[in-house]
């Protein structure tokens, strides 16, 4: 059997890495790129021709024939348009490979077909893509060669962000600015702060032959019908269980390819549900991690196809079976790589750690509604709105030890006494607490896990870019406020650590409502959260409303994340996407019920009727068989009614596809009508001959 060999042998060989750049570029240019990556400052465009040339030489040596700007439009997927390097020589007209600096820096895809939420029609602006030099270019191979793929942003000529990546880069810049200012004030200057992301990706893997027999999975990503088998995951024997060969070989192939692309995939394991798995890379700067998560998902789709498997990224492909998320491990690191959410060794480190930790608590407390909005989608509603996964209520888990430290601070009136007490009793044990961080809570949507936060409510199919942008901006805002507070205190002559702890105390006092260390799944928390005044937006339309408040608009404008009309545009696009998805699911359901379920049910009815007739003719009492047929026929009638219910819900929905009224209609009418149809179809499935049932069952997909 072919072996992949050590990851380090091939790691990044398909990327135009810093190492390649160092080999191929003059030193000043190489150093300029390096400092752009470290600080986020723009790169001198005067270097473009030389960089483009080196990149092309490298790519062509590796078999590339084409290049493309690769970007993340608001569809949620990635987009690319390839151009060959082929050109004709200026003087002799001979064919050559050419790649100019301007082609590297900027390209102009036909932007009119991407969603803009009305921005372009309003402003008549064309869109262009621009190279993001902080995320490495890479090669994607096909049977005939490779495409040099250049991570890019997508903006309009008037500067509006038309993609998900532009705001992310802006948010990283803002967070860096605020964190640097805070560090400077604390006497720890640094040249830049990177926000970091390690995104755990959950997914299902099922046989492709079964997948192609499920039009709902193919079209909507989830099964809109299907009865749950008696053994779901109740036995809890799957998590971290032995990985079956087929899945393991799939993972092996994905990882081997991923490493070549410079994606540091590290961990793989079985998840809670049967045929559910997780892949986790080593964390990196958010923009790189976010790009690579897209790339990893693409790679998984391709490898699955090759192996006659289908990979499912939907948040809830199977009703009654655990759903999938992305767990976004997030932190901040200074220019030397020091993790700002790591407790460190000295008391000075400890107070600094508490400063940054409380900034995140404050950020989530203040901007939890936007974090919730950033992960809202039709798919994720099945997780967040239901009694599983993290709930829709955003809260922060700190663990009992850290909470105790904050509470001790809070209890003290005289802050210098508290400093003594906290440092003696709490902070000195911090490093041990951190090392032995067994205090784990898997139910929290936003949990501190020792040296980073884990945002677990993110949907498995979603792009990481927007939710991370909001988180960065929220933390940046908190840090700016805390910076002013700290500055005032220091100016009054307070000792550094006393001043910092005082601010930590004040911030915690104001934000502690968001901290919850208990079981987030229970009804008790829903009630408690309501008492605390925390929001519980159980569906997408409700959650998205947070995007169009004056408060949100003021925030994005202040931090230059988006213009307020850009925020409106995004609200419109997200709502439209939601409405369309519900419609597609409803139509799909009707089609399957009419063309699959009813014909199977009629066949079953004939079988039952024939059997009853035969038995009856023999003079045997078959009353119970007749009764059974009556019940079955009743269900068939209900199915016909329920189909009509969904049809009517669709027909009488408010016209405007992107409107909130339409979304409200989905919630009040279409979704309940679908639930009714599903229930009766699933009941029929349990009462119908397996051979007659037209769609692969949950049992076949998940247990065979
Ligand atoms: P856990 O057991 O808490 O899930 P792991 O060490 O397995 O912890 O890490 C899970 C993910 O968190 C990995 O992707 C890892 O790279 C990432 N991670 C670790 N430290 C950081 C950090 N400072 N910033 C962002 N992500 C991090
Ligand atoms: Mg984890």
Descriptive notes:
With about 700 residues, this protein is an alpha+beta fold. It folds into 3 domains: about 160 residues, Glutamine synthetase, N-terminal domain (Ubiquitin-like (UB roll)), CATH 3.10.20.70; about 400 residues, Glutamine synthetase/guanido kinase, catalytic domain (Creatine Kinase, Chain A, domain 2); about 130 residues, Four Helix Bundle (Hemerythrin (Met), subunit A), CATH 1.20.120.1560. It is about 50% helix and about 15% strand. It contains 25 helices and 16 strands. The strands form 3 sheets. Strands 9, 10, 11, 12, 13, 14, 15 and 16 form an 8-stranded antiparallel β-sheet that branches. Strands 1, 2, 5, 6, 7 and 8 form a 6-stranded mixed β-sheet that branches. It has a two-stranded antiparallel sheet with strand order 3-4. Strand 15 and strand 16 form a beta hairpin. The longest helix has about 55 residues. The relative contact order is 0.10. The site of adenosine-5'-diphosphate (ADP) has 16 residues, from strand 9, strand 11 and strand 14.
